[in-house]
Each structure stands twice: as structure tokens, then as C-alpha cells.
Amino acid sequence: MSTVFYFEDIHKILSKKQTKNGLSHDTGNVKDAFPFTSSKLTRVFNESINEIIGELVRITNNFKEPTFTDESDFTYSDYPLINNVVDNVEFRDDENHEVLADFLEDFLFKNNSELKPLHLYLFNYITLLEEKKGDKKEKEKYSRFIYDLLFDNNEQISSLFSSKETNNLLTELIISSLPGLESKGHNQQYKESKYSNTLPLLKELFIEDFLYLSKQKDYFIKHFFNIVHFYTFQYVLQFLRKSQKFGNESLQKLDSFYFTFDWETGIGRYRQAVEDYRMIKNNAHNLFVHIHCLSHLSQSKEDRSDLKTYKAIIETLQELSSSEQLEEKQKLIDWIKEYSNLAGQEVPNTVNEDSTFSDLFKALFSQLQKGMSKEVCLKYGKNIDNLGKSKFLKARGKHGYILSLKQDDFLMLSAVAVKNEKISLKEFFKELERRGIAFDQYSKKEAIQLLEQQNYIEKKSDSGDAQYVKPIF
Fold first, then answer.
1. Could you tell me where the beta strands, DSSP code E, fall in 332-376?
2. Which NCBIfam families match (predicted)?
3. CA–CA dist 443, 441 (Å, integer)
4. How many CB atoms lie within 10 A of CB 207?
5. Is the pTM higher than 0.90?
6. Who's near 181: CB < 8 A, 6+ residues apart?
7. Architecture of the CATH domain 257-264+393-469
8. Which of 60, 261, 355, 407 is the most exposed place for a label (fewest CB within 10 A)?
9. How would you write the pLDDT of the chain (473 residues) with one tens digit per residue?
């Protein structure tokens, strides 16, 4: 018996959510898609990067937040971490303790409340701050989202942040003076993912690139979150664009988005990057609706089932016999009618057995959209801008934000595209497209010019076929 669609539980949940103002919405027993809310636009990628890294690394290593205890009669610094180090060093007088404390403050913090990157293990000790009510919980949510989306129990990644190895005596002193980190144990609830990854291919690409960058030790310590941020933002773009296709999308490759460079001038409306992000902006309000629509379609008898894409659902349906497909189609038709009844809406004439599954997905989406607050949908969608604008978006006057890369990020992405062996210029741009990055003719010229200036282009002739991009590292 086929069981692709299962609407019993979501029906029970929504039946209890009828109000005078309409029907409240619920995603049922399906894992979350994003940590976004409609009540608060995220700013964690603008203001709390180090804290996000700290929590993400602890999740990766299954550690609790560190506890700094000070049993001495005198403190040398406002930073508990520095007091721990100083207390573990023996000097003849207190003046030397104070000199060491001043040096460590400058070395580790440099008049900044955030810990400077020094060793990957130290990220475990960056704690979450509660500057405003709800801040800490929000940071925990985003850290967990990134972990479930990209890291997800990868032992190679975990080993990067659990190793204390160093050939630097000062770093060894600092690490050895830190309080031990307590494991969260084998709590099953903690280990189970809270967020769904609807595009496993993206995670595979991320791990490939992340582990490659990890071999560049000094660079990696300072810049590894840039690749994390890029793939997190790219995932949201991919999710929205692919969802807009209602099952006609491909899960075997990433869609390419056209980027410009932040130093380019005279960006006109004819540029493909302008059009690409306009598509995102014009449909950002649909993100909230897609999540609910896909949640309805992804319900199962299991607790907290994974969110499925329209395409993945269609592929599962195509594996069924004709009679089983007809049975599932009838279930979906019945659910659209039942949901419409709960929401007090008329059932569209297009909802019948002659409709394709893609058409029925659109019909359910439309019914959900009618009963949702436009303001809620708009606010939820604006999180896309907030996620990308600190790094991968640039305001371009009347065009608003468009996709943009800074020089450092372009070189980082070029490094993972080329890896260890030189590749042809054509292959180079194909590798970037694998990662969801495309350039029009104008931005391609800028890319080539920058690579030439940095001496990363090897020319055997003036033709594109005879030009190669050398390894960046």
C-alpha cells in the first residue's frame, strides 16, 4: 500500500487552530526549514559571527559552554580566559603577572570583546552573550541550523576543532591553562537534527571545499567562516528558486546565480545579476508559504520527519504503479478540499484528477497563501536580505541589493574551484557554476583581470582555451 502522503496528523493540528480571524498555520511533525522568524529579522551574521562560530564548534564537538571559575584573591584582567592563563604561570612578583595579562589582552583580544583567531580549539571557548532578551536563543538556533545543514556529524570536521596540537609555546600555554570542556554526552534529542537539508548535494560540495581550505592552516583559522556563510546563503537562494518550480527543478546540480563584483561601477538594469536577485526579492514573500506547503506534503507517521522538496516527492511518486499514483493523487485532492474547508475558502476548479501533481502542489500553495498574513510573509522573506547583505549583497541604487562578491571571497571561491592543479579558464568558470556562481561577460572580464593582476593566470596564447588558472594556495 502506497503511503507518500499522510495528512491525518496535520488535519488534527489545524482543526484545533480555527479562530474568528481565520486559520492559524502549523508545519506539523516536520523538521524546521530555517531558523528565521517573521517577528525579528536576523542580524547574527552582521553582529555575532564569533559567537555563532563558538556555538557551532561546540555542537560539532558535543561540548557544553565552558565555565570559568576564579579561585584566586586577585584578578588581572576582565577576561576570565586570561585570568586562567595568568594563574597557571609562576612569577616572582605580581607585577610580572600584570605584564603578562596586559600582553595577553592585546594578543588575544586587542581592545575588542571578541577573541582573535589563534587556534581552532580556542573557538570552543567563545561563549554566547545575552545582550538583549532572546539573543542567546537566536544565536543557538542559527548555529544549530548551520550544523544540521553543513557539518552534520562529519568526523573530519569535528577533528579539526577538537585537536589541541600546536608547535607554538605561547598557544600551548594558553590552551593548557583553559578549563576542561564538559561533554553533552549521548543525549539522543541533542544528536537528532532539528533542521532539514533538502539539497544534500550542496552539503557535499561544502565539505569538499571546507576540508580543502582546512589544509591552509593560517588562512583557515581566520577565514573559514566565510565559506560557511557563503554556502548557508547559497542554500536559501537555492531553496527558494527551486521551490518556485514546483517539482520541475533539478536536485542533481545547483542553480547558477549571476554575481557581480563589489568594485564594479555602472551596473545597469540589463545586467543578469540585477535580474537574478530581483527574482529572489520578488518571490521572497513566498518562502514562508513554500515551507508550510512542503511541510503539509512531507507529513508522515514518524516523529519529526524531514522536509521534502516538490521534486523529491514527485520522484517518489514516479516509482509507484499507475493505480498507486492515482490513490496518492486522490489523497492530495481530498486534503486540498479539506484544508480549504478548514480555512473557509472555495476549492479551485483545477483541483481534479486531470491535474498533474505539480498543478496540485500549486493549488495547495495558493490556498495556503490566501489565508496567510501578507505582512508575516514579507517580514519572513526579508531575512534573505539580512543573511546576505553583510557579505554577498551590495546596494546598487535604484536596483536595491544585487548579488556581489568582494575580492577576498572571490579568491577563496577560486581557490576551492581550482584546488591543487591548474585548470583551463573554461573549466574554472564551470567549477564556479557547480557552486552556484555565474558571471556575465562584464564580470568575467573583471574576474580574469583580477586573476591576471594576482599572477594566477597562465597564458599559452590569447585564446580562452589556452589560458589556465593556477592554484591560489
1. none
2. dnd_assoc_1
3. 6
4. 17
5. yes
6. 58, 61, 63, 64, 66, 124
7. Orthogonal Bundle (1.10)
8. 407
9. 558 999 999 999 999 987 777 788 999 999 999 999 988 888 888 778 889 999 999 999 999 998 877 666 677 888 878 888 888 787 777 678 888 888 888 888 866 667 777 899 999 998 888 777 778 899 999 999 999 999 988 999 999 999 999 999 888 988 888 888 988 877 655 567 899 999 999 999 999 999 999 999 999 998 999 999 999 999 999 999 999 999 999 999 999 999 999 999 888 888 999 999 999 999 999 999 999 999 999 999 888 899 999 999 999 999 999 999 999 999 999 999 999 999 999 998 889 999 999 999 999 999 999 989 999 999 999 999 999 987 999 999 888 999 999 999 999 999 999 999 999 999 999 999 999 999 999 999 999 999 999 999 998 765 556 899 999 99
Q: Taking the domains of the chain in order of start, what are their residue ranges?
A: 7-36+285-381, 49-194, 257-264+393-469
Q: What is the DSSP letter of 80?
A: H
Cα distance between residue 296 and residue 149, in whole Å: 21
d(CA 118, CA 115) in angstroms, rounded, equals 8
Give the E-state strand segments of 288-336 in sequence order: none
Q: How many CB atoms lie within 10 A of CB 88?
A: 12
CA 328, distance to chain mean position in Å, is 33
In single-letter form, the type of residue at position 336 comes to I
| CB count in 10 Å sphere of residue 34 | 23
Cell matching residue 161: 576543532
Pairing outcome for strands 423-424 and 437-438: unpaired
